[in-house]
UniProtKB/TrEMBL annotation:
Phosphorylates the second messenger diacylglycerol (DAG) to generate phosphatidic acid (PA), another important signaling molecule. PA is required for plant development and responses to abiotic stress and pathogen attack. May be involved in the accumulation of PA during cold stress. GO terms for biological process: defense response; phospholipase C-activating G protein-coupled receptor signaling pathway. This is Diacylglycerol kinase. The lineage of its organism: Eukaryota, Viridiplantae, Streptophyta, Embryophyta, Tracheophyta. It holds the Pfam family DAGK_cat.
Amino acid sequence: MASSQFLNNFIIPDYILVPGSEVNVNDDDHVPQCPVLVFVNSRSGGQLGGDLLKTYRALLNQKQVFDLGEHAPDMVLRTVYANLESLKLRGDRFAVKIMESFKLIVAGGDGTAGWLLGVVCDLKLSHPPPIATVPLGTGNNLPFAFGWGKKNPGTDHGSVVAFLDQVMKAKEMKIDNWHILMRMRAPKEGSCDPIPPLELPHSLHAFHRVSEADELNMEGCHTFRGGFWNYFSMGMDAQVSYAFHSERKQNPEKFKNQLINQTTYAKLGCTQGWFFASLLHPADRNIAQLAKVKFMKRHGEWQDLNIPPSIRSIVCLNLPSFSGGLNPWGTPNTRKTRDRDLTSPFVDDGLLEVVGFRNAWHGLVLLAPKGHGTRLAQAHRIRFEFRKGAADHTFMRIDGEPWKQPLPVDDDTVVVEISHLGQVNMLATHNCKSKSVYDPSSPRQEDEDDSDEEDSVAEEFRKFGAADTFRIPDEVDLSHLS
């Protein structure tokens, strides 16, 4: 059991958390070095979420630990920060010091973590708190990217105390926030939206007008907007993810732990044809046949993105962690840095890494020390334009949440545009995988033997043997965010 002296570094007094509470501190009292607000998705990780909630409440002030199934984080943060500002105006130096050192802990899957990041981004707080993530989901790409691991943690007192110790020692690092805008023509028949609302990711929702200057704003169109932190993907990888989520929704009793989930995911990769895409996946579903893609490297002109005809999956990546911790971009060598103007995948440089894959065998290249996908571009903005073609739908995915996207059946256009929105502060451990463009120790280039992204299939077999923006609707089952 941790000493009370250690836990005092994290505990926040009631009067800071609940407006109108009696002030029970004085100038001689110990100001917590690392005051934290804890948000737990109690439905993540099977029983783990509920157990973790109980442990945090046993160790800290119960009023600083929140169950996301009962408390919306935007309301909690608005209340706490409004109280802090009020106390600050009244000369409460204790409250000022707490505001300056606040940290957030969020326990859940990538969807839960992304929700909290979005809330902090949207609220534009005077002192935005950095965020530590506890991995309770299946992929756990966000926690893994910042050094918090990808395995479900222990929920006993010792494990939680060890995590709190890491939080106190963690460094702050910024992460880019990406805005996504999707526009499609309203259907000519029927009263339903093109996509039932609950079949879209929770971070995408209807938005009737973006701005007067919005060049995509047109009469008779449906607009959806939202945001993401890790990736947007389209094609075969999103199709497999969609099959997994559909199966879990129909048979939730079969998805009780992380190992079972990951095994089921691998099986679906086979049954969906991802490993034998050239035989089972129609050529008209390849990315180049589905969409015209434009990108903007930095502020300037749009350029056409050249996508090889064999690419069946495209990933726009913000973090060096995809599909359970793999790094699809890698680190370009000196020649590619010079000839193609490519850089390492920094999480705060305002650029997305755009990577393509032919099939699951191509994806296995990521298991090699210097393996990576087909590097297509780095982009500050990217736009997908879908017109009438052989396919009537494709599959898309944002931070682990997939959906089946209808495509035009007449002369209309479906547009998906991604652009840089802002940044949020994260907490990172000493063995963090993510790199900052402002950190001189971050690698800028790889050794000269960086593998060629156009390795042949035969070579692959030889190697391997085979807020508003992020608002969560009231009716959403939080277990689907794991």
